[in-house]
Amino acid sequence: IWVQLRQSLRLLGIGGIGIIRMSGENCFDVLEKIFVPKKKQPIEEIKGYTMKYGHIADSTGSVVDEVLVSYFKAPKSYTTENMCEINSHGGNVVVKKILELCLSNGADLAEPGEFTKRAFLNGRIDLLQAESVIDVINAKSEKEAKTGIKQLEGFLSEKIAEIKKEIMDVMVNIDVSIDYPEYDVDEVTSKQITNMLDSVGKKLTKLEKSFDNGKIIKEGIKTAIIGRPNAGKSSLLNAILKENRAIVTEYEGTTRDTIEEFVTVNGIPLKLIDTAGIRKANDEVEKIGIEKSKEIANEADLIIAIFDASKELTQEDLEILNLAKNKKTIIILNKMDLESKIDENNERLKAVSNSILKISALKKQGIEELYDEISNLFELNEINLDQDIVITNVRHKNLIEKALESVKKAKETMENKMPLDIIAIFIKDILEDLANITGEIVTDDIIDEIFSKFCLGK
Length: 458
Ligand code: GDP
Fold this sequence. Notes:
The chain is of the alpha/beta class. Helices cover 47% and strands 17% of the residues. It has helices at residues 27-34, 92-104, 114-121, 127-138, 142-152, 155-179, 186-219, 233-243, 275-282, 290-299, 315-324, 347-350, 367-377, 394-415, 420-438, 444-452; strands at 2-5, 17-23, 35-37, 50-57, 63-72, 83-89, 108-109, 221-226, 249-252, 259-265, 268-272, 302-308, 329-334, 356-358. The strands form two sheets. The protein has a seven-stranded mixed β-sheet, with helices on one face. Strands 9-10-11-8-12-13-14 form a seven-stranded mixed β-sheet, with helices on both faces. Helix 4 (127-138) runs antiparallel to helix 5, helix 6 (155-179) packs antiparallel against helix 15 (420-438) and helix 7 (186-219) runs antiparallel to helix 14. 38% of the residues are buried. Mean pLDDT is 84; it is low at 5-12. The structure holds guanosine-5'-diphosphate. Guanosine-5'-diphosphate (GDP) binds next to helix 8 and helix 9.
């Protein structure tokens, strides 16, 4: 029997309700020792997915809290085991006390990810689905949550199963040929194998490629806003953040003293680098020097280079342009509400990027066009989350790459006209790589590593 607070301990605060979750064959026995329902009823009569009202009391009969208890009966529960959830009043004291009562009456404390791990070990979900539970919990943007949920529903697992079936269908024929060499099936089989390997290779390649988009969905496009002092960096940052204030999250940046802010604009997740630096510079305490801009630009997936279009390009502007060379860059001509001295036909700008936009950060004009341009540059419009499967997990990507490697080797053995039993070994390698992804064959170390990333209570 495992017991745990449902909320992560790190997030533990005062909430309206607290939930203590127990899973295991005998969890109702523990519950019975501490829960005094208003209407007593034998456990056999209580249906799953129902709730009962009552009190939690300690061994002396003293009431700890007024609670609602949900019952889940095996196999219809998150873990497939008997489960119950005690909904108490929130706050550390009461919740902790109930947890202690569960422990002193025979429950063990659950590890992070314990419940999901049990769901996996008991076969209710595969490893892919278990991993996607973490992704859904940690999702920072709607797109990310959506990919996580799709995976949780088993879309990626289905895709892998489909690929495996394609291989198995051919494997059966190969095995027949190996076992009964007197039948002359070699010709047919070899053609079948080649077709299968081509088709499997294509599907796996598509999955592998989707990782780039998956990475964007998961981590956001690392974006640097660079420009000389007074070009309008801070005004642009504010225009972006203000409109989307509700969903800004701050992170420690990778370089010392930088803060990164994660913001989703029109469904595009951006990770803005060194927003603190931009703000500081604006307070006139410190101006971002070219060195610092260089550092930020180096780290970025996308550079937004901003220029004051009401002035001629200065030496500093040219240095900024230089930083943006050979990078994905959008050039912003700011202050379009004023009379322009430079425009999109400027040769120096055109030499660095084809994406040149006129905006007014102050009047918040042209900001939508900026979002559209980002979408186009990263081909985000082409990600169709409702149809395409997107890989977001490095473990999966590595295993898919490994499977592709095995496909390549199998193809080589075919081209070299190796005997069927040798080819079969390579084809079985592909199956093994795929089985590793879904967790059909997977070592305890890997399982432990995956579930350790979970928060407590999930
Ligand atoms: P930073 O030093 O690059 O962060 O630039 P700021 O965003 O602080 O802007 C510098 C000055 O230019 C401020 O006085 C802003 O109000 C002004 N400014 C910024 N954007 C615009 C714009 O689109 N039009 C006009 N007219 N002024 C702007």
